[in-house]
Amino acid sequence: MLPWDERSIMLNRTRLLAIARKETIQLRRDTRSLILAFLLPLLLLVIFGYAISWDIDDIETAVLDQDRSSASRELLESFRSSGYFTLGRYLEGPSEIPGLFDRMAAQMVIVIPPGFARDLATGRPAQVQAIVDGSDANTATIVLAYSRAVVQSYSLEVGLKGRALEAPLVAQTRIWYNEELSSRNMIVPGLVAVIMMIIAAMLTSLTIAREWERGTMEQLAATPVTRLEVVLGKLIPYVAIGLIDVAASTVIGVLIFGVPFNGDPFLLMVLSLLFMVGGLALGMFISAVAGSQLVASQLAMVLTFLPAFLLSGFMYPISIMPKPLQVVTHLVPARYFLVITRGIFLKGVGVEVLRLQGLLMLVFAVSALVLATVAFRKELR
Fold this sequence. Notes:
The protein is mostly helical and 381 residues long. The chain has helices spanning 13-28, 31-51, 70-81, 97-102, 116-122, 137-163, 184-204, 207-214, 217-221, 227-255, 265-290, 293-310, 323-328, 333-347, 351-375, and strands spanning 59-65, 85-90, 108-112, 129-132. Helix 2 (31-51) packs antiparallel against helix 7 (184-204), helix 11 packs antiparallel against helix 14 (333-347) and helix 11 packs parallel to helix 15. The chain is elongated, with a radius of gyration of 29 Å.
């Protein structure tokens, strides 16, 4: 038989449903696969949802107040009331600063020099120093931005008090879709895409390899089912499981993590169907190529976890990646589903905005099905 012929793409509903029923019975008897299918996605969502956060608050801050005036205390109160800084340690001298950073006992030290209040009272520029631990460059940058904002706000307040005038320019800002600027509102919808990509490929990566290892491929080879019927029949139960997992993950994201859901649940499920078919078919292709469950599971993890986690835009914006990597990201289906989940959860966008992502996931699903069908062999090895 040629790798691709008319018989390999024929579909018979009775045979297709028989394969789906066989796979359902086999899955029902496999406790480990059931745990992987139903419990692992929800467990990963809860663990990662709590563990991963890009919010920086409760910044451990030490204070070296060499002025000890009412003005310096007002400045420190501005830091404390901002909600980002925790002023827990007061130093006696500059020699204590290096030891704090060495022991990681503080992330920032505020140094207020002598004469701070006098300079403010006479209208001269008053100096205040923020010393930040730069071992984590990203955190240090954010901490410095927060401290500058607090100092600027305090400086404006002091200037208005002295002049008794209104500020010449007042900026009013408004944030759409994520008013609280909570990173969890971005992380949880993204985790749905990343986790389901991993679970989908992991589930089906064991199916064909399991047939070979258990010796049941001989029985399957003796039946008149075509390769496409085998691939689609084995996918059907897992597609249903994947949609249940997406629905359960959505409920957990809304109820436990408080993520807003502003979009259409039906649209989410339809686009999730395309995504799941592509991910499951990819796992089927890996299973057909690998031949053993151990190799298939390892390949599925490598080919899905790292790209979905690092190249989908979940951890790092695609726009800041090197150009060659930006090109590679177009081959990662989680990239498109990430846009869909965040768009539906946070923005409530519809098909008119997400049709391109849906089309690309459809292309990926069809391509993965073709690869899985071509790679699958009924002939005994």
